[in-house]
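Annex B. Sample input.
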Amino acid sequence: RLVRLTRIARLARTGIFHELSYMLRGIEAGKSTLIWAFVLLILVCYAGGIFLTLTIGRDAEFSEPDISVEHFSSIGNSMFTLFRCFTGDCSSSDGLPLVYPLQRNYGILVAMLYGVALMLVSFGLFNVMIASFVQSTMRATKYNDVERRRALKRERKMVRQKTTLLINRIKELYSSWTSRRSEPNNGTHSVADLRITREMFATFLEDAEIQRWFENMGCEDSVRGKLFDKIDRDG
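Annex B, continued. Sample output.
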């Protein structure tokens, strides 16, 4: 199970999931903006809920008491009604707009106040929330791009270092192999000039340092045995 989790983690680091990681990191970076935007919206709804409860909810002369009781009888009901109106669902349980009965009881002033409040919240407050969230997301994405480039640079440097160690170790094992079997050693300094047979390669794979290198590079055992056929340039 641990090996499977490791494979999943390596798969998640591939380019397939970069866009998904940007989205998740953007949401994480903008979570404080979302929280404060939600708090601000609650405060607006709370202030409006108090006003509506004291005016409409406590108005005994309201001509449609069912609407008054259902939507404005308490601060909680008034807040929820305001939230629904701000998000585009300003209607009663019968599906009729709430503005019309309010206008019939309080005149055109209610419709004007509703329009002004809707403009301020929908086109003002909500747009400010979205802009702040997008700005936070873009800032996080830019920071993540820089960090990804740095991580890629560090990874390339690490691969070069480990590959250099691997080449040096192969040279050492090759020299040891040829000296034990009294075979000629050309003293070459390039690993490409070494004459490595299949038997040599199989022996090199048993070396502890080389096995550790393959493990660090994520090369499985099933792949190691096929490497000789893949890199044998002489066929």
